[in-house]
Amino acid sequence: MEKVNSPEELMESIANMSRDNSVYQFHVPGKGRFALVLQEEEQQSIQADVEANLELKVIIEQSRKEFKHGKAMSTSELLKSLSPKDFR
Fold it and tell me: Sheet containing 23-28: which strands, arranged edge to edge?
């Protein structure tokens, strides 16, 4: 069992986890022992979601048309356009 002394050490170990190295047991002084298990989610593509949902397909097609015609805004542009008064 590995002793972890900092959040950086923990994050480095988590970053090294993989399908073959999916269980990490560690001890945090003053907190106790932990076991971390990497559980991969099913990687379903957007295409599979679109094929399963006709309404989603229509929404994506509309979004693409609007983007081509300059009627869309990037996430960065949206965030820049907001101010604290928008959340009151």
Answer: 2-3, 23-28, 32-37
**Cα angle at 18 between 12 and 20, to 5 degrees?**
130
Q: Are the C-beta atoms of residues 30 and 51 closer than 8 Å to each other?
A: no
User: What is the CB neighbour count within 10 angstroms for residue 13?
Assistant: 15
Task: Please tell me the pTM assigned to this model.
Answer: 0.45
Distance of CA 3 to the CA centre of its chain: 28
Q: For each of the chain's 88 residues, which pLDDT tens digit applies? A: 889 888 899 999 999 998 888 999 999 888 899 999 988 766 667 888 888 889 999 988 988 898 889 888 777 888 888 888 877 6
Between CA 11 and CA 29 the distance in angstroms is 16
Largest Cα–Cα separation, the chain:
58
